Amino acid sequence: MQTYKLKNNVYILEGFTMVGPLEGKGPLKDYFDYVIQDDTLKEKTFEKAERKLLYDLIINAVDKAGLKLCDIDFFVGGDLLNQIVSSSYTARELNIPFIGLYSACANMTESLAISSIFVDNKVANNIVAATCTHFSSAERQYRFPLELGNQRPPTAQWTITGGGASIVSNIPSKIRIDSVTFGKVIDYGISDVNNMGAAMAPAACDTIKTHLENTKHKISDYDIILTGDLGKLGSEILIDLMEHENIILGQNYSDCGCMIYDKTEKVFMGGSGAGCSASVLNSYVLYKMKKGDFKRVLMVSTGALMSTTTSQQGDTIPGIAHAIELVYEANCDNFPNNKIIKAKNSKLKNSKTKAKNNKSKI
Amino acid sequence: MQTYKLKNNVYILEGFTMVGPLEGKGPLKDYFDYVIQDDTLKEKTFEKAERKLLYDLIINAVDKAGLKLCDIDFFVGGDLLNQIVSSSYTARELNIPFIGLYSACANMTESLAISSIFVDNKVANNIVAATCTHFSSAERQYRFPLELGNQRPPTAQWTITGGGASIVSNIPSKIRIDSVTFGKVIDYGISDVNNMGAAMAPAACDTIKTHLENTKHKISDYDIILTGDLGKLGSEILIDLMEHENIILGQNYSDCGCMIYDKTEKVFMGGSGAGCSASVLNSYVLYKMKKGDFKRVLMVSTGALMSTTTSQQGDTIPGIAHAIELVYEANCDNFPNNKIIKAKNSKLKNSKTKAKNNKSKI
Question: Rounded to two decimals, what is the model's pTM?
Answer without folding.
Answer: 0.94
